[in-house]
């Protein structure tokens, strides 16, 4: 540690007592103050030596901090149980009899999800049918076909809350089987150009036994 010099005395330096030099040699060492100036007259009496012993720094007892309380894990929302489903789709004629997927309640809405990813006409066929909470009517239908032999891709849709003119979805149930028929919008896209028309359809879905 570098030395620190502090001037002390009753009056300003070089008056009667001269200047006093105090040298602090380090923490924990005594500090000695002595008169070190040239006397102003023959009657000069040196200032008595005063020894100052610094007091020890207060002892601070280290109290270990309390261990943080581990946060309780937020429970993961329980996923609704799903059961297997099979189905068919026809638009004018049969598109597929090999739909497979699940029946599950999602956010309170009974949802049937079906797909055929080895379809001879479109390569892929995907369908999602959402029912109302009582399972007595259709809330929405969304479908997508892959590219057909003429280069068209298809998007199919129906929404009960915002039904396009001419679209419909009649639901009949028998046990765990559901049949939906009517007309839906079909958007055909090729080379960046899209055409929209109404097409008749029929979807059947059979959910496996069990609550969903």
Give a written overview of the molecule:
The relative contact order is 0.13. The strands form 2 sheets. The chain has an 8-stranded antiparallel β-barrel with strand order 5-6-7-8-9-10-12-13. The radius of gyration is 46 Å and the shape is globular. It folds into 2 domains: 4-52, no CATH class; 82-207. The protein has strands at 4-8, 20-24, 31-35, 50-52, 82-91, 93-106, 109-119, 123-131, 138-145, 153-159, 170-174, 177-190, 193-207. It contains no helices and 13 strands. The chain is mainly β.
Number of domains: 2
Q: Count of helices?
A: 0
Low-confidence stretches: 1-52, 67-78
Alpha-carbon Rg, integer: 46 Å
Overall pLDDT, averaged?
77
In short:
The protein has 212 residues and is an all-beta fold. It has strands at residues 4-8, 20-24, 31-35, 50-52, 82-91, 93-106, 109-119, 123-131, 138-145, 153-159, 170-174, 177-190, 193-207.
Write the layout of secondary structure elements.
Elements: E1 4-8, E2 20-24, E3 31-35, E4 50-52, E5 82-91, E6 93-106, E7 109-119, E8 123-131, E9 138-145, E10 153-159, E11 170-174, E12 177-190, E13 193-207
Antiparallel strand pairs: 1-2, 2-3, 3-4, 5-6, 5-13, 6-7, 7-8, 8-9, 9-10, 10-12, 11-12, 12-13
Which properties best describe this structure?
single chain, 212 residues, 8-stranded antiparallel β-barrel, 4-stranded antiparallel sheet, globular
């Amino acid at each position: 540690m570098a030395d620190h010099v502090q001037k002390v005395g009753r009056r300003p330096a070089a008056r009667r007592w001269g200047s006093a030099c105090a040298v602090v040699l380090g923490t924990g060492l005594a500090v000695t103050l002595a008169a070190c100036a040239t006397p102003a007259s023959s009657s000069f009496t040196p200032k008595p030596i005063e020894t100052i012993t610094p007091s020890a720094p207060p002892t601070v007892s280290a109290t270990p901090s309390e261990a943080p309380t581990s946060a309780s894990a937020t429970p993961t929302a329980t996923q609704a149980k799903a059961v297997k489903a099979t189905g068919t789709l026809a638009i004018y004629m049969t598109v597929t009899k090999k739909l497979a997927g699940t029946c599950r309640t999602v956010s309170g809405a009974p949802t049937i999800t079906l797909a055929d990813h080895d379809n001879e006409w479109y390569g892929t066929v995907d369908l999602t049918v959402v029912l109302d909470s009582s399972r007595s009517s259709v809330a929405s239908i969304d479908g997508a076909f892959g590219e057909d032999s003429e280069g068209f891709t298809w998007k199919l849709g129906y929404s009960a809350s915002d039904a396009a003119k001419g679209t419909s979805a009649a639901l009949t149930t028998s046990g765990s089987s559901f049949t939906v028929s009517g007309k839906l919008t079909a958007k055909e896209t090729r080379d960046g150009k899209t055409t929209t028309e109404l097409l008749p359809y029929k979807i059947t879905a059979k959910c496996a036994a069990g609550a969903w």
